[in-house]
């Protein structure tokens, strides 16, 4: 019976550790490992971001019960966080390393890490963290058998939890205190504390907490040999834990049910249930659970006469307990081995185990275990003929047995159970009264119903009004869109009219003059010398016609969305040199000098034909509006990302109203040049479109009577190539 009591509370202590992080999926582990690798490769080996990833990976390993890997990653996070100004994250990691140290049986390290975390949380005035730290330090002291200090720390934790009304946390600490009372054989205090925890758990609907207390109640009934009642409470607890998929809790309860079957001599059922419990403990790598279950299996094998399996299970359990430095587990194993060796007639080993159990039992103050140890030792003395020693040990046995006061426990249990049922009935009565109050309130609700109908009707009217208003707004928007389309259509008609104007006036006149001139020459009405005199003017007219036709064609392609851009590396210096030759006849006629101050290495990535159109129109305009004998200056400058080209003339210039109209997606009326040259207004529209489609911009500075400077920029070749490659 002592063994079943022990295993439940050992598991319970682990189950109630205060972890507040959410459950995560195993698939996240690899993702976090990849993030950590990338951060290290990118030179962020000591960054806060890396520390947080180590922390999260540690938690993932903890969720998967991989405690060693979890500990490694948390320690990595702590190493980085100590150099960062993140005390909250550091305290969290220290606290969790304390938890892992506890699970790995490193109790001194656990207290050290909990204490470090506690000091930081006190400085931050983090009450929840402080309460959790006190609770977990108490868990370690309880495991080490230092029950007085454990109860003190649990009470510190409860005191803080009451300040921020952490009912679930209070229940957890109360159950731990009840555990200690039970190990000290103070069953009445254990019962009172458990019932107090049960009331809180029921009030907050904490299913897992209720399940734990059901286990505690079952242990009390088991102590009174009321096995049917104990089994009923275990079954209730198991149902809750299975619904919540609490594997550790399921293993605990199955183990306790197996012990009931053992006491009732239903050994086959006991072996079956304990086998399930052992499988679950192995799956979740719970060494304490494995040890406790193997000890119980040893007791069953001993009862059915299988000495070999009994001894193997007892010794395997003792080995695990010694590895974990689990004093309660060691005490349990040595007590059972003492009884086993006594049954086998191996009195020296039986004495050795029983005397060691008595020393440990006195250290831990567990009366139940001391009672069993003294009884075994008295039987050993009796067999060895040491009757005086046997009498003394038997007297010690009876003294511990009587101190357990089981008769008073039974009456106290009945009393407390009655009080609990009374409180429960009182709660039911209050609930019924509340239902009656609700019934009375229905009459008031009926009175409010008519008022609510009126409110609903009013809301309906408002809703209809809202729908009508939305329809009005919709019609208004449709009307605005229609008006906008009309304006766009008007603009399109203006564009069409502009095209016809260009064809009918700007092209028809020059072509007609050319035709008449050629007709005169053809009919020998003009000799060779006269023809040569008008040849420069003829060349000028034909050049103008070509420029107008070229602009008109390209502008039409733009308007029809049929223009394609093929960017290539272009030398601005070469493009300007080509155009200087192209315009040489015109410049010679007007006596204009074109100066080019262009960097030889000025290269852009753009469509060559479109750049030629931009330069041709800007230089052509500069010639058109320059005075005879004037000068045109073409310059380039480079920045990190772009090349800026400027075309400057000292001609007629423009007023500011005209400057503001340029480049506004509308055709602007072209002015006549200084020697009567005419234009279409298409050139600058094309310049704007081609500049922007190649990733540049265009603008102008002008003063009437002093000339104009047109600027446009294009992306630098190496910059744009790098962007395209990327």
UniProtKB/TrEMBL annotation:
It catalyses: ATP + protein L-histidine = ADP + protein N-phospho-L-histidine. Belongs to the Rap family. TPR repeats lie at residues 51-84, 91-124, 131-164, 211-244, 291-324. Coiled coil: none annotated. Residues 502-718 form the Histidine kinase domain. Its main location: cytoplasm. One of its GO terms (molecular function) is phosphorelay sensor kinase activity. The lineage of its organism: Bacteria, Pseudomonadati, Bacteroidota, Cytophagia, Cytophagales. It is an enzyme of class 2 (transferase). It comes from Belliella pelovolcani. PROSITE patterns: HIS_KIN (PS50109), TPR (PS50005). The chain crosses the membrane at residues 454-472. This is histidine kinase.
């Amino acid at each position: 019976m002592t063994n079943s009591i022990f295993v439940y509370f050992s598991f319970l202590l682990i189950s109630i550790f205060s972890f507040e992080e959410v459950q995560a999926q195993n698939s996240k582990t690899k993702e976090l490992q990849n993030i950590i690798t990338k951060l290290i490769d990118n030179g962020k080996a000591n960054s806060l971001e890396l520390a947080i990833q180590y922390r999260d990976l540690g938690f993932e390993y903890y969720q998967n019960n991989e405690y060693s890997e979890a500990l490694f990653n948390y320690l990595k996070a702590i190493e980085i966080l100590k150099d960062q100004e993140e005390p909250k994250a550091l305290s969290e990691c220290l606290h969790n390393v304390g938890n892992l140290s506890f699970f790995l049986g490193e109790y001194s390290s656990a207290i050290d890490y909990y204490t470090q975390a506690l000091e930081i949380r006190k400085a931050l005035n983090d009450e929840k963290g402080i309460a959790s730290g006190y609770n977990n330090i108490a868990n370690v002291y309880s495991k080490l058998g230092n029950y007085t200090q454990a109860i003190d720390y649990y009470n510190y934790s409860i005191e803080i939890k009451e300040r921020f009304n952490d009912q679930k946390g209070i229940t957890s600490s109360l159950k731990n205190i009840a555990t200690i009372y039970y190990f000290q054989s103070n069953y009445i205090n254990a019962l009172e504390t458990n019932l107090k925890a049960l009331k809180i758990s029921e009030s907050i609907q904490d299913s897992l907490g209720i399940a734990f207390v059901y286990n505690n109640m079952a242990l009390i009934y088991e102590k009174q040999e009321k096995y049917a009642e104990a089994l009923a409470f275990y079954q209730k607890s198991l149902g809750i834990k299975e619904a919540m998929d609490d594997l550790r809790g399921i293993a605990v309860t199955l183990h306790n049910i197996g012990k009931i079957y053992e006491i009732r001599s239903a050994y086959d059922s006991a072996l079956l249930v304990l086998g399930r419990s052992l499988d679950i403990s192995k799956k979740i790598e719970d060494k304490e659970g494995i040890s406790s279950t193997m000890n119980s299996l040893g007791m069953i094998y001993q009862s059915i006469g299988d000495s070999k399996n009994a001894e193997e299970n007892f010794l395997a359990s003792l080995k695990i307990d010694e590895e974990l430095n689990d004093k309660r587990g060691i005490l349990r194993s040595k007590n059972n081995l003492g009884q086993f060796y006594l049954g086998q007639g191996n009195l020296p080993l039986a004495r050795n185990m029983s005397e060691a159990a008595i020393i440990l039992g006195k250290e831990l103050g567990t009366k139940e275990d001391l009672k069993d140890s003294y009884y075994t030792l008295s039987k050993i003395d009796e067999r060895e003929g040491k009757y005086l020693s046997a009498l003394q040990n038997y007297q010690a046995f009876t003294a511990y047995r009587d101190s357990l006061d089981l008769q008073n426990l039974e009456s106290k249990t009945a009393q407390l159970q009655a009080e609990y049922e009374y409180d429960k009935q009182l709660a039911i009565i209050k609930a019924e009264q509340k239902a009656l109050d609700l019934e009375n309130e229905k009459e008031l609700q009926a009175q409010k119903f008519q008022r609510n109908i009126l409110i609903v009707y009013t809301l309906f009217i408002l809703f209809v009004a809202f729908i009508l208003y939305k329809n009005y707004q919709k019609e208004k928007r449709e009307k605005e869109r229609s008006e906008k389309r009309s304006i766009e259509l008007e603009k399109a008609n203006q564009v069409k009219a502009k095209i016809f104007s260009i064809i009918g006036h700007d092209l028809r006149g020059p072509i007609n003059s050319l035709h008449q001139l050629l007709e005169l020459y053809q009919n020998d009405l003009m000799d060779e010398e006269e023809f040569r005199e008008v040849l420069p003017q003829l060349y000028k007219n034909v050049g103008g016609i070509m420029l107008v036709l070229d602009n008109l064609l390209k502008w039409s392609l733009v308007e029809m969305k049929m223009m394609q851009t093929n960017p290539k590396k272009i030398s601005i210096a070469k493009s300007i040199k080509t155009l200087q030759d192209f315009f040489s006849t015109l410049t010679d006629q007007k006596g204009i000098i074109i100066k080019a101050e262009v960097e030889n290495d000025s290269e852009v990535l753009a469509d060559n034909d479109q750049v030629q159109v931009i330069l041709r129109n800007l230089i052509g305009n500069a010639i058109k509006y320059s005075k005879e004998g004037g000068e045109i200056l073409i310059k380039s400058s480079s920045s990190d990302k772009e090349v800026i080209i400027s075309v400057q003339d000292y001609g007629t210039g423009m007023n500011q109203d005209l400057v503001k109209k340029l480049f506004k997606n509308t055709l602007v009326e072209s002015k006549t040049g200084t020697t009567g040259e005419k234009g279409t207004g298409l050139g600058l529209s094309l310049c704007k479109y081609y500049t922007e489609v190649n990733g540049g911009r265009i603008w102008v500075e002008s003063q009437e009577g002093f000339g104009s400077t047109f600027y446009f920029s294009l992306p630098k070749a190496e910059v744009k190539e790098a962007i395209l490659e990327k």
